[in-house]
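Q: Sequence in, structure out?
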Amino acid sequence: MAVSPRRRRRRLTAAAAVAFAALAAGLTTGCDSVDKALDCVQTADSIADNVTSLQQAVENAANDPTQADTSLNAIETDLGKIGDKTDNADVNKAVDDLKKAVGNVRTALRNGDRTPDVSPVTDAAGELTKVCTK
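A: Exactly. Output:
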């Protein structure tokens, strides 16, 4: 039994609509993932700049001890942004590690250490950059 042209057109239209809906859903999800990854990379880049500022601030702590605190605040602000935008376990772990390293530097500064070791902050920021670009 032959299928009428009208029935065939309805089937093709329905199939096309289903295919379009699937494609649109895939693109939306894909774009959302790309947006999150881009946000992660941009924030990690901003954190890297802040880590550089922190290193310089620690080197110049004798001249202006508040610079290190300003850099630490900027890093923590960026970490808050990245933590809010991802559900990636690796990114969240890297953010937690960086928060801990920042907290240790802040504690060292409050305890009078004018030249705390910032290498754990640098290492953690590097790890964050690495997981953001996976």
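Helices lie at 5-59, 66-84, 89-110, 119-132.
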